[in-house]
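Example record for the data management plan.
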Amino acid sequence: MSDAARMLAAFEGSKVAHGTTKVGRTGRTGKAEADSRIVREPLTEAKIEAHLRGGMGVGGIPINVDNQCKWGALDIDVYDLDHKALQQKIQKLKLPLVHCRTKSGGAHLYLFLDQFYDAKDVREFLTEFAIALGHSGCEVFPKQDTILSDRGDVGNFINMPYQNADMTMRYAFNEQGEAMDLGEFLDKIEASRVSLSNWRASSYRRSGSTLPTARPALSTCLLTARFRTSGTRSCSTSVSTVGRNPRTTGSRRWRT
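Corresponding structural encoding:
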């Protein structure tokens, strides 16, 4: 299987749309200017191949018309981010996240799953990961619990890593905080897939054991402190690539 085919399989989501991004200059804040658009066509292996070879950058939409997803992500939009420290914290908390550098120097933290799950469940879990990492204000993808596909809603996309793969600055980090090449990243995805099958959407206990290597249940993830979190509920139908985090209601508590 080609690298593009493996990438397409890893970012399986919407079958009706994807995103494109043309990157411009980097401003004084460190944010790279970009022309980002929703394209109402399926993401294809050919489009990803062009992305990997330095052509038009593409992004995946995790939520599908059934309001389920097989992957999600946190978008940490901090341009002077200490990636090594972030990777160390991911390792310390034993979170099943694949850490990638963004075009502006921030981080995309990907959660890859063994099958499709309800988007609202994936969003809740990712929100808790963000709080545990100290980035509660970051964006969560998918951005919606549900989309109104019969009205033309498609969800929001997040830019994929390894654009211009041979010379990319949008690479993944290994456990030591070192850059991985594309093949290593794709292997990491398969090794990092987890199952939500034993998880239930209410407060629950985290064990102190480490995550198994073979498709572990997320209910065994380690957290070492008590957090108060907010359950997210967003029915936004926007397809904009930039926006605020959804407003939150309700609460839940980590128990150690």
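Summary line stored alongside the record: The chain has one domain: 3-253.
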